Amino acid sequence: MDWVAIALSLRLAAVVSLVLLVVGLPIAYWLTFSRWRWKFLVESIVALPLVLPPTVLGFYVLVALGARSPIGRAWAAWTGHGLAFTFEGLVIASILYSLPFGVQPMVASFTQIDRSLLDASAILGASRLRTFRRIIAPLAIEGIIAAAVLTFAHTLGEFGVVLMVGGNLPGVTRTVSIAIYDDVQSLNFAAAQQTALALLLFSFSALSVVYALMRRPWAVAPLS
Amino acid sequence: MTLSVQVRTRLSSQFVLDVAFDASPGVTIVFGESGSGKTTLLRSVAGLARPDEGRVAIGDRVLFDSRTAVSVEPSRRSVGFVFQHLALFPHLSAAENIAYGLATVPAGDRRLRVARIATSFGIHHLLDRTPGEISGGERQRVGLARSLVTDPEVLLLDEPLSALDHATQSRIIADVRRWTAARAIPILYVTHSQREVFALGERVLVLQEGRIVADGTPHAVMESPSHALVAQLAGFENLLDAAIIERRPAAGVMVARLSGTTVDLETPLADLDGRAVRIAIRAGDILVASEHPHGLSARNIVRGTIAALSREGAVVRAAVDVGTIVEVHVTPASSDELGLRVGVPVWLVVKTHSCRPVAAL
């Protein structure tokens, strides 16, 4: 087994999950409660990575992060090196790629919360932030955890985007899925099988955790 | 402090909520059928719904004014709101629910106030439990305590007791009365139960399809309804279509003929436009005689035939055909004594003042 690749994938997945938790919460909150008429456009953009081929997403990210793009140049001016084919570039690409997984479970659980609880909180003097901390977050905790777990698992298994943006640099951008692909290409089936099995077992466990959490309906049911 | 409300807002393509009234400290009942706009009215006062036009103010403090584009956030209006389904926070204990609105109060003071109101509402022993672990009546008390503990300037109650049995309702009503007696704040109490109107209100506003159709003391509004809907809501079983055929202002009465019959009823004189009226009569205010009665003060004696009889508990309901069907309630004992059966002829006796003319629509 390629332990360096596994360690790299775990690190990438952890960073992406954390960032998406922070970025995803306000996006999910806005998507749930905004009454803006063009909201569906934002919903479509968030869901786009679900249907787009990873190579297409990877291609655009590569162009956006490249040395000639404003983002790439700004990054290079700040850090002294480019974004493409680096771990940081991989993180940015993975965040975009896992966006629906980090946002949609939260939207689903926010939507289930009885709106009269939020009305009650407001009337009792709570600000929106306090209502979020005291009412929405505790009642939607399953959705928030599910979002983090799904993001983690999805990032762990990504391939196309990584190949486009990160390439195959051991310890920098060579993730588990790239390692398996490489092993197969060089007819090293035993190693590929071991790594593939590890990934399969992990993904199954992660999804089991998510579905186990999702089947607790009483946490968000209104009480009369 | 007086709550002044002026709200106009389109609720659906059919009707517009359009009301204006002032509520002094004390309980003002807002009475009406579901869909009459009661809840929207409360939500507009609380800031949860935004009226198309109008003004809401507590004393000099303007909460909403469409002309000056003022709309104070619900969290800053200092109103208490008890929701129909309570909206208790399911993941917080009763104590945490009650203390929720006291976030800015120092912790020691907060504990004291929660303890004091919990004792007053008889829920101090279940402060550690979550709403899912207590009974319906106890949840109601927690909901009330949560709103009252913040000392709101206005209290809004949206059918808070509709799900409870009568005994529990009465005890909670007594608790609310005691708590609010010491604090002179306007209370709007939405309900569709007559019982609650009489038990609580000093004043009742009757809402129909978004408009106030009656306003007065519960006794005045419910006992001499000016409006057919009010009569129906107030429990007048008989609402008979009729036409005024004669007015006798000197005697203070008038005569109305029931539609489709030759039956004339003498009723108190009412200031109603046109000839078409409806006569509201409580089924229990009608006497039944098996022979034509003589020497009575009652002015209305009507012959009819029993069309149907049914017994429900301690009441026998008789449907009497006098050309139109009139519902009459008697006790099982008198029903047996009179030998009431379907097809038997009877005479109905109704006092003039038991016949209340109300506007046809």
* Helix and strand run of chain A: HHHHHHHHHHH
Subunit organisation of the chains: heterodimer
Radius of gyration of chain B: 25 Å
Total E-strand runs of chain A: 0
**Helical/strand content category of chain B:** alpha+beta
Instruction: Profile the largest sheet of chain A.
Output: none
Which residue ranges of chain B are poorly predicted, with pLDDT under 50 across at least 5 consecutive positions?
none
**What value does the average pLDDT of chain B take?**
87
Helix content class of chain A: over 70%
The class by helix and strand makeup of chain A works out as mainly alpha
Distance between the termini of chain A: 55 Å
Enumerate how many helices of chain A there are, as a single number. 11
Of all chain pairs, the largest interface belongs to: A-B, 23 and 31 residues
Layout of helices and strands:
The complex is a heterodimer of chains A (224) and B (361).
Chain A: H1 3-33, H2 39-51, H3 54-65, H4 70-79, H5 87-111, H6 115-123, H7 128-139, H8 141-156, H9 160-165, H10 176-185, H11 189-214
Chain B: E1 3-10, E2 16-23, E3 26-31, H1 38-46, E4 53-58, E5 61-65, E6 70-71, E7 79-82, H2 94-99, H3 107-120, H4 136-148, E8 154-158, H5 166-181, E9 186-191, H6 194-200, E10 203-208, E11 211-216, H7 218-223, H8 228-233, E12 238-248, E13 253-258, E14 264-268, E15 276-281, E16 287-289, E17 300-312, E18 315-321, E19 325-330, H9 332-338, E20 345-350, E21 356-359
Parallel strand pairs in B: 3-9, 3-10, 7-8, 8-9
Antiparallel strand pairs in B: 1-2, 1-4, 4-5, 5-6, 10-11, 12-13, 12-15, 13-14, 15-21, 16-20, 17-18, 17-20, 18-19
Characterization of the model:
- The complex is a heterodimer of chains A (224) and B (361).
- Chain A has 224 residues and is mainly α.
- Helices cover 76% and strands 0% of the residues of chain A.
- Chain A contains 11 helices and no strands.
- The relative contact order of chain A is 0.16.
- The C terminus of chain A is likely disordered.
- Chain B is an alpha+beta fold and 361 residues long.
- Chain B contains 9 helices and 21 strands.
- Chain B has a 6-stranded mixed sheet, with helices on both faces. Chain B has a 5-stranded antiparallel sheet with strand order 2-1-4-5-6, with helices on one face. In chain B, strands 14-13-12-15-21 form a 5-stranded antiparallel sheet.
- In chain B, strand 10 and strand 11 form a beta hairpin.
- Chain B is elongated.
- At the A-B interface, helix 6 and helix 7 of A face strand 7 and helix 4 of B.
